[in-house]
Amino acid sequence: xxxxKGSLLLVDYTATVKDTNEVIDxxxxxxxxxxxxxxxxxxxxxxxxxxxxxxxxxxxDEALLNANLNEEITVxxxxxxxxxxxxxxxVRLIPLRKLGEKADEVNVGDMIEIDNRVGIIRSISSGxxxxxxxxxxxxxxxxxxxxxxxxxxxDMEKVTALIRRRxxxxxxxxxxxxxxxxxxxxxLIPKEYYMQEGLQVIKRAIANDIFRYVQNVKGIRFVEVYExxxxxxxxxxxxxxEKVEGREHTTVEEKGREQVQAQQQxxxxxxxxxxx
Length: 276
Fold this sequence. Notes:
By secondary structure, this protein is α+β, with helices and mostly antiparallel strands. The protein is built from 5 helices and 14 strands. It has 3 domains: 1-85 and 135-151, Chitinase A, domain 3 (Roll); 88-132, Thrombin, subunit H (Beta Barrel), CATH 2.40.10; 153-226, Alpha-Beta Plaits.
């Protein structure tokens, strides 16, 4: 049965350029390694998609609306519903010197940012450089092979997936609790994310997503727990002996005490000798 707009789906897919079979995106780690696009910093798993909300290419979005659960589908996405048609007005020819210090370093095919726009260098000749500001996949038909694995309906499943969309935390380290009478959701953030760059912005985005897709949540508390590190009790470990290469030896402090005791004993012997 086709899904409705706003349905939260977990989708497995691989996207390729139709005329070259170049894999440009995939949720499969095996496929990524096979096509030499594997990113060790990425978690490969089914992608969360809100149908019809523009989280994916328009043509893919439309295909998801008409898909069925666990159905393997292949669909070709035309340029106008993928990365757009090529616009010749986005190709510019500029003096090479305008690139400044980069002028002697750039090559054909390089991505470069200029005038707050990112483009691809198409040619360099006679002191001029041609830069194409179209998306590199503009004008290309994109083929998606995909399967909808699950539609999320449980509130806590939705919450977990929405959090991990913005903050890819280990599910087992994510503490969640929902107070049903008040609708307050408590989110315990794992310690390793406390110093995450832009964490406050991420939390705000997570909250907006949850409020939009989980109607039973009325308020959200993000919890960060900081604990005092336990320190050794005063005097703990004093006089303990260390072992090096299987033999016992006294610590520096113990050696110092032994030397003082020896000196005191020598002084007592000298005093007794003089008294005699």
